[in-house]
Amino acid sequence: MKLEQAAKQLEAIGNPTRLKLYRTLVRAGEAGRPVGYLQDTLGIAASTLSHHLHRLILTGLVTQERQATTLICRANYPIMRDLIGFLADECCADAACGAMESDAA
């Protein structure tokens, strides 16, 4: 994953409403949730929900699928795992260096 892509995704979920929306979709599993359910759960206007969903879709964190007259939203789990992996990939990579520096001080 590229740094720019990760930054855009983190920026998208950096808004409290979008983060709550995203967490709702993550909790829903592969079945996802209809837009109407999301609107009721979050208690926001349809236009506001549409705006927030659009931001999450643009970054690939969320997908949508029309089933007859219902629009189903889903967390894009492979993209989520990529982002989590990007954040954790270099966890403690410099820990040995930091330990040596503090020992020398």
Automatic annotation (TrEMBL):
<keyword id="KW-0805">Transcription regulation</keyword>
<dbReference type="InterPro" id="IPR011991">
    <property type="entry name" value="ArsR-like_HTH"/>
</dbReference>
<keyword id="KW-0238">DNA-binding</keyword>
<dbReference type="InterPro" id="IPR051011">
    <property type="entry name" value="Metal_resp_trans_reg"/>
</dbReference>
<feature type="domain" description="HTH arsR-type">
    <location>
        <begin position="1"/>
        <end position="95"/>
    </location>
</feature>
<dbReference type="Pfam" id="PF12840">
    <property type="entry name" value="HTH_20"/>
</dbReference>
<keyword id="KW-0804">Transcription</keyword>
<dbReference type="InterPro" id="IPR036390">
    <property type="entry name" value="WH_DNA-bd_sf"/>
</dbReference>
<dbReference type="InterPro" id="IPR001845">
    <property type="entry name" value="HTH_ArsR_DNA-bd_dom"/>
</dbReference>
<dbReference type="InterPro" id="IPR036388">
    <property type="entry name" value="WH-like_DNA-bd_sf"/>
</dbReference>
<protein>
    <submittedName>
        <fullName>Metalloregulator ArsR/SmtB family transcription factor</fullName>
    </submittedName>
</protein>
